[in-house]
């Protein structure tokens, strides 16, 4: 997907199977078909950097370092210079502007650094 921003390794502290089963998360994402264990989450997030058509980034609380969600650019189409965007914020990441800031940063990165035309 081109150049990736430098960052810290993805942490799983804070984002859990409980977060993925949260009613608001399920409402917008459809939710998991099964309960996710910490080991499953570590495996999933550990495999994301090997995917060439996506960029998964953690949304963390600056004060605590807790992982409260994620933002993702995925389904990258190099020819059309476009991709899809999604976000997930658990209850501890809501109503504080974290999603707005994370969206602005990752979508801005897509346009400015990756040269995307559409997100």
Instruction: Report the end-to-end length measured between terminal Cα atoms.
Output: 13 Å
Uncertain segments: 1-14
- How much strand content do the residues show? 15-25%
What integer is the average pLDDT?
79
Give the biggest sheet. Answer: 3 strands, antiparallel
Q: Number of DSSP strands?
A: 3
Helix content: 25-40%
Question: What coarse outline follows from CA principal-axis ratios?
Answer: globular
**Tally of individual domains:** 1
Order of helices and strands: HHHEEEH
Radius of gyration: 14 Å
User: Helices and strands: which structural class?
Assistant: alpha+beta
Q: Tell me the CATH topology.
A: Aminopeptidase
Query: Which architecture name does CATH use?
Result: 3-Layer(aba) Sandwich
The helix count comes to 4
SSE order and pairing:
Layout: H1 17-20, H2 23-29, H3 38-47, E1 55-60, E2 67-77, E3 82-89, H4 98-112
Antiparallel strand pairs: 1-2, 2-3
């Amino acid at each position: 997907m081109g150049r990736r921003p430098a960052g810290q390794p993805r942490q799983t502290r804070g984002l859990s199977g409980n977060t993925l089963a949260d009613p608001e998360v399920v409402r917008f994402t459809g939710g998991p078909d099964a309960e996710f264990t910490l080991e499953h989450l570590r495996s999933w997030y550990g495999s994301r950097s090997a995917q060439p058509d996506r960029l998964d980034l953690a949304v963390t609380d600056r004060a605590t370092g807790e992982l409260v969600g994620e933002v993702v650019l995925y389904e990258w189409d190099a020819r059309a210079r476009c991709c899809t965007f999604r976000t997930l914020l658990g209850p501890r990441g809501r109503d504080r502007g974290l999603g707005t800031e994370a969206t602005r940063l990752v979508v801005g990165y897509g346009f400015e650094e990756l040269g995307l035309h559409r997100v």
